[in-house]
Amino acid sequence: MTRVVFDSRAGFCAGVKKAIRGARDEAGKRGNVVSYGELIHNPQVIESLAEEGIRVKYNLEDIAGHEIAIVRAHGIPPQEEEWLKSNQREYLDLTCGRVKEIHRTIIRHRKADYFIVIVGNPDHPEVKGHLGYAGESARVIDSVKKTLEFSASFKNPKTRLLVLAQTTISPELYSQVVAVLKAQQLQVSSINTLCPFVLKRQDWLRRFSLLADASIIIGGRNSSNTGKLYDIASKNGPVFWLTSAQELEAELIMQYSLVALTAGASTPLEELTKVAEILAAHGALVKPA
């Protein structure tokens, strides 16, 4: 018999809950609500919000004067927020509280003449927002190799560095980058800005993917934290990345004795529940862990 253990703490993180609830409340009260960029990285949720009238606009210039712009959970650079103000666009800021705190941290340390280093994906909207506060001289690092290249080319060894993290990267990468920079005799201060909710989910998967014969991860393909879960699970065995329950091949999963099941922080708990119910209908013993 196939046994399936699922992460009982899966579902939306607090920042995602805030963003979705705020957008729906605003749309319910006023209408003409648009999201500047995808509110969260989950295709089913974005489609559901569109059906409720909350459309996505990817360019600031496309936001009309009568529309209310939602600032997505990942945040935006201050220059874009200034554009909304100067062009008299009404907006509702639903940036994750943890991301806002990173913005405030960057502002404080820039005033104290720190050079800002952000460990993360330079193409991710959260990181682009951080860079807007950190300034043109800041650096984004996404690998140990790039850390070595940066430290070798850094011209001001007496300048203090502040090393922060994109909230959804792996703790291993962040620790490695900080260790390499310190080993190069640079003046490094580090503030671990990783999201505790994301870390707990990663820890759960490290434990159970090691015990299981296969893992199932549910989440959007453009979701950073879901991608990290996939990376973790793939080190320990076969892993199936689903964007929705509709993609589940139950017969294939039933070939394994023990399966670990979890989802990204922007995936509704209902989607994980659907997968669990389908597997249970095929004879799997499903239980939370």
Outline the structure in words.
This protein is α/β, with parallel strands linked by helices. It has three domains: 3-11 and 196-288, 3-Layer(aba) Sandwich (Cobalt-precorrin-4 Transmethylase, domain 1); 14-96, Rossmann fold (3-Layer(aba) Sandwich), CATH 3.40.50; 98-190, 3-Layer(aba) Sandwich (Cobalt-precorrin-4 Transmethylase, domain 1). Helix 4 (97-111) runs parallel beside helix 5 and helix 8 runs parallel beside helix 9 (224-234). Strands 11-10-12-1-13 form a five-stranded parallel beta sheet, with helices on both faces. It contains eleven helices and 13 strands. Helix content is 44%, strand content 19%. The protein is flat and about 60 Å long. The chain has helices at 14-30, 43-51, 78-86, 97-111, 125-134, 144-153, 171-183, 196-211, 224-234, 250-253, 269-281; strands at residues 3-6, 33-36, 55-57, 68-71, 90-93, 115-119, 139-141, 160-165, 187-190, 214-218, 239-242, 258-263, 285-288.
